[in-house]
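Key idea: predict the complex, not the pieces.
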Amino acid sequence: MKQTASTRAALILLQILLAIFVLLPFFWMFSVSLKPPTEPFAIPARLWPDDPTMANYVTAFRPEFRTYFLNSLIVSGASVAITVTLGLLAAYSFTRGQLLVLTALMSLVVLAQMFPHAAIIIPIYRMMRSVDLLNTHASLIIAYVSVTLPVAIWMLRGFLMKLPISLEEAAAIDGAGPLRVFWDIVVPLARPGVIATAVYVLIVTWQEFLFALSFTSTRNMRTLPVGLNDFIGQYGIRYGELMASSVMVSVPVIAVFFFLQRYFVAGLTAGAVKG
Amino acid sequence: MTAKDRWIIWLFLGPSLFLLGLFLYWPLVGTVIDSFYDTSFISPEPRFAGLAVYERVFAGRHFGDVFWNSISWTLGVVILQNILGFFAATLLNQGLPLQGLTRALVLMPFVLPGVVTGLLWRFMYDPQLGLINSLMILFGVVDDSAAWLADPDTAMAAVIFVAVWKGFPFSMLIYLAALQNVDRSQLEAATLDGAGAWRRLIDVTLPAIRDVVLVNIVLTLILTFNYFDIVWVMTRGGPQHATHIFPTQIYETGFGQFRFGEAATYGVVSIMVLAVLVALYVIVQLGANRRRRTA
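Result:
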């Protein structure tokens, strides 16, 4: 479609405004994180500190923060691995098993995406308490796997539906059993879908707050979002440190997202656009 | 797959079905059961109370607030997020310079953890130290420091704004994918027929992506209605209950005050409200589709 020069200039201006709207808070977070702890806050706020320093990062990287980080890493890492594995197995069954009952089960999986976590958390909390799992990594991993599975199955199912079934049929004719076919043909071909789903589970679990807040009670079990939220009460509001911590919490997941973005976008939109 | 190999379907499906049943469907039943029992901090043993808990919740001081807050929060975020998401998708589909980079950067709020988003914006809204008032004073929009989150009249709008900021990239992503499927030749034919940008949008683009709009709105409706982290971190439902929505109210009633029966009742009501919202929207859309087809 042809654009006149003035339309194009207006569109470029809009694009710049959109970028500023999105990026200004990020810029501000970064700028405040570099402010020397001794430099008082300017009123009105200044966009860039006079003397940028990493001091806030050094202070913020205290032992508790490292514990939170490790907890988040364990919980998210395990959730990603388990959800993707179970999701792929389930998606394979949903796409390859031609049984009527599977259609009904798939509707139940889709419906489960709708459940408000706040509305089901208390019974889950009680179950965890009765088997003595509260305040453990396991309680969070179980909860995270359960709540991310429906979307993971849905994404992977959309993906497996698009794989050519002829390869699997050919392998079956050559005498490969169903497990062989799954492992040698489906798993390698599903890699982009697996990556997309893994990114989704990582984004969700890295920031999960409600379960982590309710299920963990001691500092050595806190994950990053809860630890960050505690920050306010604990140290008054030291914004420089808070913003430095925020940057450190956000960078890993933003970095992963940027590297694997194209997989994620393809995986998510395949399902959504197909409906 | 031969009938002999059917066992593998159930072997592969088993773990997922077990987890979904035990940790999503069974707790849902548990919440419904809990909502008929009374518990409190003083008497933690649940006692059967029938519909008494519902009566108490409905008659309670805060039920109306929570209900209407949830509605305005959900509608506000969903509508604004989809409009902005669609606008951004259209804009970043024009082949302007740096389009790829801008698309990638615009996605950043979507990945930013909710708690970080809440804390960052709480700071942005700070009456003295925050960037928003500083900019507004600089540009002469306000001459006095406004306490956006502390004022019951502005708190909800302020929180909605943040949720839209974080949520619109997700909608943009889905609209961008949908726009790739719009038939270029139809758009060009419409242009030749003298249709302006607005007519092309209404007559060609929107009908072509109708299904995606439906999916997108239902998805964002569910996600928004069930939101917890940003609201909790920014306002904890305050000031004066002005931003309490179902999830924050349930959390506070259950884990804050140990009134599990009432929390469960709020939970059941919230599921019903959400189901009604989704059903209403889908029915309206399907009705509109049918009229369109018969017209």
